[in-house]
Structures are given as structure tokens and as C-alpha cells.
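Q: I'm a student working through a structural biology exercise. My instructor gave each of us a protein and asked us to get a predicted structure, then write a short paragraph describing it. Mine is Serine/threonine protein phosphatase. I'm not confident about reading structure output yet, so if you can add a plain explanation after the C-alpha cells, that would really help. Here is the sequence I was given:
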Amino acid sequence: MKRILTFILLCLFQTNVFADPKNCPNTTPVALSSFQGKTFDLSQHLTYFSTKPSLQSLSKVTNHFQTFRTEKSAGVIPNFGNTDKQYWFCFVIQNDKNHYNRIITYIKYPLLDEVKFFALRESGEISENTQGRLYPFRNRERDYRGFSYGTDLLPDETVTYYVGVKTDSSMSVPLMVAEEKDFDSFVSLDTLLQGFYFGIVGVMTLYNLFVYFMVRDKAYIFYVLYLFLSAILFQFSMQGLFPALFFPSSPELVYHIHNPLYFLFLISCFPLSITFMNLKENSPFIYKWFIALSIIPIVSFCLLPFFPYRLMNKTGDLFSFLLAFFALVVSFYIAYIKKFPPARFYFFGFFFVIVGGLATVLRYMGFLPVNVFTENAFQIGTAIEVLLMAFGLGDRISVVRKEKDKIQLKAEINKQKLIAYGKELKLAQKLQESTLPQVLPKFPGLIIKTGYFPASLVGGDFYDLTVYGKHQICGLIADVTGHGVPAAIEAAMLKIAYMQTLAFANKPGKVLESINVSLVGNYKNQFLTASAIFIDLEQKLLKVANAGHPALYKFNEQSTSIEVIRPKGKLIGYAKEVQYPEETYKLATGDKILLFTDGIWDLWENGDSGEEELLQWLLTRKAESVESLYGGIDEHIRLRNKEGPADDDITLILFEIT
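A: Happy to help. First, here is the predicted structure for Serine/threonine protein phosphatase. I'll explain a few features afterward.
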């Protein structure tokens, strides 16, 4: 009884798994003769279903095909985007030839984490193989970057195949079948094309690195970095070459290296784009946007260890999709609106990359079908971009050199202007020095000390001292508008007018009136302030006239306050008919007189006007000699210059009656 029951169960199991033609429902066998010496696309003959959780045993898979609803690919290469489901496919191959044949079933898409192959023969024999990114490369039967599985078909034999796939990346399953010799030809051609692509990219990378060392333009080093990360390393991962060439026994490394390379590739796009299109100069606003956007892939790269592979891979796909459109619009704007010629190469180069990249991303996301174009568009676009960008970088160097030549020419012109200006300043300095007294007059009973401190090489102040007879001296101090050569010329004009005046003017008021008549209309609507004094040492008198100039100060050792003397009078050059009234003051032994320009007030400025501070300072030092007072002022000037250059010229004349 037990033997009968065992026999019945074996028959049922044998029938369910091996003999039932409905093991792969809704499909028709593919005749070996239909291959016709080439690789054959199985998308017309695939039946599939998806499941979660995954199925691992053939009995469960066949039971699912028989029990649950299935789909047909109907000539469209299966493509499901980024999904966490496992997909099982089945198809049937019939050897309708009268001789033995070995066929290879393979999947061209290399980013599948797990691929299970089952072959179910009519005899009931089952063969299987498991491979994928998460398995060592030795699990693969052939030295091929994709996934392949070989079986021997006897004459007139029919074999049912089951293929299960699962991945944390995008799900694309281009299932193909070919006789062994045709598959070997396909692999040879595929290897040749991959070698051709990486050969172009590798040569261009080394070439641009060499050019960088020649010209030291940072755009080249950013381009080399971009090529190395995106066109070489990331493509190695995309094309499944890391396990085939470098890490055959490190599936975990192959799996985990993909997303970091993805985001490093995205990060490298930003410095390349910014420098290649000169965004900082051509469009500061877009430059700021690029800087802000670059934070996203940088932060994503840092978060890779903390978030699932699938989530970060989706993030990379979405960001690269948006970045592609943004870069295309920006490059068009810079090239054709801002008219920066090198950006045209960037635009067209990235146009091909973007078309290829978008086709790849949309294929990964499940929006585009899998075909020859979508499978190879990114590599083709990258190869074209490499060539165009090389031309673009050359054009950029040409443009940058022209700009540098213009800058250098402008700098040389400015240099010559500065040299000429320096010569003018030296000439103006000599001219101004010639207007100032070379030797001070000497009178018994009078000590004179003068100081002239221009704010720049040539100042706008003027002073003069002239002897009248044996007992009189005439002094003039003035503040001429401006600095430099114009101020020196105006000072020379003032000197001439002053010397002409001294021939007939014997009063300070007359001196100012005569100077005003000579200069009004000749100063191009500019004005000057001046103060004139006559000191009569015999009669001990001081006569003062003023033309809008700061007051003079008179004091002695017994003074309780500083006497401020400033007669009324309009600026010189304001009008032709101007009278300058005089004021007369008695002088005594020990009296000190200070004439100055308003630049001296800045030395004592402490929040408010420095005049009050100066008056207080003079009052505290009223008993000191003229030499001591001058030394104190000179010390103030040196201390102030340590804080920064003076804003105005400083001129002073000190008298002491002895």
C-alpha cells in the first residue's frame, strides 16, 4: 500500500513539474532554426509574473505559472523601472535540427543583483545556475559582463527555461538567446565596442590632463575629473565591467560602489559647468543657483551609508533628470543670449549626453522601452560630448587668452598712464616747491617757524612771507581747491598774482583785493580762501584781512584765553568787486601768532570739531617757545599718520615777538 501511494505521489509530482505543457503557459516554442545565425530577441515569446517575497525553488515557480495570472511581453523588452519585486520569466526552445546544438541564454543588462536560470528538459532533468551583482563573477558560466547560461540541446529536444531576476537598481531584462558561436561573435563585438569607447575616453582624459599641465587652466582639470568619474568609473559600473575586470571576487564592493560613483559623477558636473561657461562672470545669478544645487548631490553622497540603496538610486535618477534640463537651458542662455562662444560646444556636447542620459534614465524608470538606442545612448552621447568638449575647451582657451591679452594691454596702458601721471606729479611737486619760500626772512625781535604737510605728493595749500622795508613783513596763507597738477598750477597763478600785488599794495586788505581781481574768472569757477597779515615791528602793530579763511590765533604767556582773529571777507574768485576790511591789533613782547589752514583741525578732532580741542591745547602750552609748539604739532601729525593718511593738507606759520 505504501509503495502504491509513493508511486502515485511521484507521478503527480513528475506530471506537475516536468511533463505538463502548461508549465510555461501562453507561449509558443522558439525553433532553433529561427535564429538564422544571429542572436534572437525572446521578447515575443516571454511569459512572466512578479512576486514579493521572492521565490527560490523551481516547484514554487512552476506552480505560480500554473496557478496565478501571468503577463506576456508581446515583443516589448521587459522594463519595470526601479522596483523591489522579483520577476520570473519562462520560454521554450525547441531544437528542430537533426544534430546537437549548444545555445546560450543571456541578459545584456548588467545591473541585476540576482539572476536564477533553470532549464527543464523533457526527460525531467533540471539544471540551474545563480549569478548576479551580489554573487562572485566565477558563478557566471561565460566571461561576459552580462549574465549568460548555456545548455546543450539534443536533436528534436524541447527545453523549458525559467529565469528569475531581482535588483535594487532599475529593472531591465533584455533576454536573448543564440547558438554558442553566434554568442561568441556577439561578445567579441561587444568587447570591441566597449574597448573603442573607453579607448576614446581614456585618450581624451590623458590628453586633457596633459593640456592642463601646459596651460594651467582649471577648466581642464575639472573636465579631466568629470571624464574620470562619469565617462570611465561610472560607466565601468553601469556596463558591468567592475566584476569582469577588477573585482571578480568582491560582489559587495561592486554592489556598493555604484551609488557613490553616481553621485560623484553628478557632483563633478558643477565645477565643470561653472568654469567652462564662466558663470561667475557671465551670469552671477545662475552661478549662485549652481552653487546651491551642488549641495544636493554632496549631501546625498554623505547620506549614502544611512539610507537604502534603492532610495538613493531613485534620488540620483530624479536629480540627474532635472539637472539635465537645467544645464541644457543654462548652456543655451550663456551661448546664445550672453554670446559666450565656448558655451555652444557645451550646449551641443551636453545635448547629446542629455539625450543619451535621459533615454537611459527614462529606460531605468520604465518610461522608455529597451532597445539598441536606449541601451547605448548614454555611451554614444558621452563619446560625442568628449570630442565636442575638447573643441570647446580649446575655444575657451582662445577666448580667455584674448580676454587676458585685452586685460594685459589695458594694464600696460594704465601702467603707462600711471608713469606719465607720476611724472606729472613730480613736475607739479617741483612747480609747487618753487612757489613756496626757500629761505625764511630774518628780523631782529621776530622768530618765524613754518610747516607744510601735503596730504598727497602735491597739495593745495600755499603760503608766502615777504619783507617790506626794514621793519615790516607781509604774510599770506591760502587754501587752493583740489590736489595734484591742477592745484599746483593754481598755486603758481596765486604766486604770480601775489608777487604783482606786492609792487603797489602795502596793506593786507589791498593785497587780497588785488589777488581777487587778478584771479576772478581764471579759476574756472573755483574759489580759494586766504588770510593776509602785515606785522610792523617798529610800531608793534598787526594788520589782518581775511577772505573766508580760518581765523588766526594770538596769545602769550599771560593769556587766559586764545584770541581768535577773523575779519569778515568773501572767498577769492567769488566776485570781481570785493572789499576786504582790515583789523589792527597791538603787539607786545612774548606774543605768538598762529596762521594755518583748516587741515590742522583734523589733528585734534575728537568726535566734534577739532577747533575747540586745538584752542585748549594751545592754552595749556602758551608759555612754550615757537620751536616747542611746532614740535608738538609735528608730533600730532606723525601720530595721526599712523592711523591713516591725512584727509587734507596742513600748512602753518608761527610768529613770536621777542
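A: Here are two points you could use in your paragraph. The first strand starts at residue 30 and ends at 31. Residues 22-186 form a domain with the Immunoglobulin-like fold (CATH 2.60.40.2380). It's a good idea to check both against the output above yourself.
Q: Great, thank you!
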